[in-house]
Write a structure and sequence with these properties.
This protein is an alpha+beta fold. The protein has 2 domains: 122 residues, Diaminopimelate Epimerase, Chain A, domain 1; 123 residues, Diaminopimelate Epimerase, Chain A, domain 1. 21% of the residues lie in helices and 41% in strands. The protein has an 18-stranded mixed sheet that branches. The model has no long low-confidence stretch (mean pLDDT 97).
């Protein structure tokens, strides 16, 4: 069975966020998908099953299934267009645990239509602040994650979180963010989800469903360019429209292999 690895939110090999993608004739059982994801040991492995011109899509980390993933959706659309599963003029429509998601080829970008995941201000859990080792400007929470605004881009880049403490928090993980000092970007971020087997995710589409509305309100514009400041790094273009967020990114295929299935 063919398995394809794609670097998402980049057009350079070995940057962005790697995801494995499999197109399957029918839905396998969850234990098998979890085992494949654990074997691939990437932040996400995506499983696609065709459905009358559309597709079912599920995402697994090495530790658990997740409800929403941006970079592996980007990688999935890229693979469908690269392998001829879809013509580039066709929209990729994915049925997921977060509803219907779509991706469109806008050369050379892939634009994805995702739900906004707006945060609300909350009291900062003491383990969160200790884990980050930085004084927050603001702390919020949505259904998935904590959002922590720090005072500067350098504070985001220099943060050295305690992953053991972060693992004790409820929810999926925590993002840290600040207004960008780098001229070509509007904001920067990093994302940590050790409870789901990902100490630091290289580039995270789903967090930008929260970050885009957050910074749109503060900066007074709907279209923003973001940089996720992990070691690999990646660029995400965002556009806020009501309760939806468009995420734009590029992708490049890194390897194509065969999974040996008994």
């Amino acid at each position: 069975m063919r398995i394809i690895q794609v670097d998402a939110f980049t057009d350079e090999l070995f940057r962005g966020n790697p995801a494995a993608v499999m197109i399957l004739p029918k839905a396998p059982n969850e234990a098998w998908m979890q085992n494949v994801a654990r074997e691939m040991n990437l932040s996400e492995t995506a499983f696609i099953v065709p459905r009358k011109g559309e597709f079912d899509l599920r995402w697994f980390t090495p530790a658990a299934e997740v409800d929403l993933c941006g970079h592996a959706t980007l990688a999935s659309a890229h693979v469908l267009w690269e392998t001829g599963g879809l013509d580039r003029g066709e929209t990729a429509r994915f049925h997921t645990k977060s509803g219907l998601l779509s991706a469109t080829w806008v050369d050379p970008w892939i634009e994805m239509d995702f739900p906004a995941e707006v945060e609300s201000a909350c009291e900062a859990p003491e383990p969160l602040i200790r884990a980050l080792g930085a004084k927050p400007v603001y702390v919020g929470r949505n259904r998935l994650d904590y959002l922590v605004e720090l005072e500067s881009e350098s504070a985001v880049r220099e943060a050295k979180p305690d992953f053991g403490l972060l693992r004790t928090l409820d929810g999926r993980g925590a993002m840290i963010t600040a207004r960008a000092a780098t001229p070509q970007f509007d904001f920067v971020s990093r994302y940590f989800a050790p409870a789901f087997g990902i100490d630091e995710d290289p580039v995270t589409g789903s967090t930008h469903c929260c970050l885009a509305p957050f910074w749109s309100a503060r900066l007074g514009k709907d279209e923003l360019t973001a940089h996720q400041a992990s070691a690999r790094g990646g660029i995400v273009r965002t556009r806020v429209a009501g309760d939806r967020v468009t995420l734009g990114g590029k992708a490049v295929t890194v390897l194509v292999g065969e999974l040996v299935v008994p």
